[in-house]
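User: My collaborator sent over this chain with a note saying "see what the structure looks like." That's all I know about it. Can you take a look?
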Amino acid sequence: MVRDIDKIIECDWKSIEPAPESSGKNVFVTGVTRFNDQIVQLLDVELLLSKIYPQYADTKIPMLTDVQRERIKALNILLVDDSSIARKQLGDALNQISIPFDLCKDGNSALEFMRAKASRNDAIDILVSDIEMPGLDGYELAFEVQNDPALGHAYRILHTSLSSEMCTERAHQVGAHEALVKFNAGELIEAMLRGAESLTAN
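Assistant: Without extra context I'll predict from the sequence alone. Here is the result:
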């Protein structure tokens, strides 16, 4: 329990590193950074909220027609999030409707993964990425993907715990097609359907 706040510091996502593997699983830490020669841990807000408020995640999955399901199933989907609970929520949502997907823990590994897939003529079609991540954040990832001819066709969906018009506006500025607030499984699936329709139309 936090009793009071000693200091508020501002730091760039590039200065934040993923939590070390030695931290273990189901810990409430999503990354670390340094401040005045001290290590500062970043709380995994999604995991914390899911423990305090089990109803935090809206996992109601919309009913899909066979055509809709097959349309999404045919696409290469990549989910990117540094939060273990968010990755589980994303994965559970797609597993419930039998949609295959790949997972990455951060923006740098996602970009590397996408480039490797594209080099094998198996490019990612739908990218779903968190915004706040260590290293390469979701905004930067969307921008890099949009500006890489081998990756740019991907339908880019950003999602965040921080709900604001500013997040949505910036997401569109960097090349995201959609910006969603975590976590509503129905909204995510509907966004993917729009992505599938857009890719089919193009």
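A starting point for your reply to your collaborator: The longest helix spans residues 185-201.
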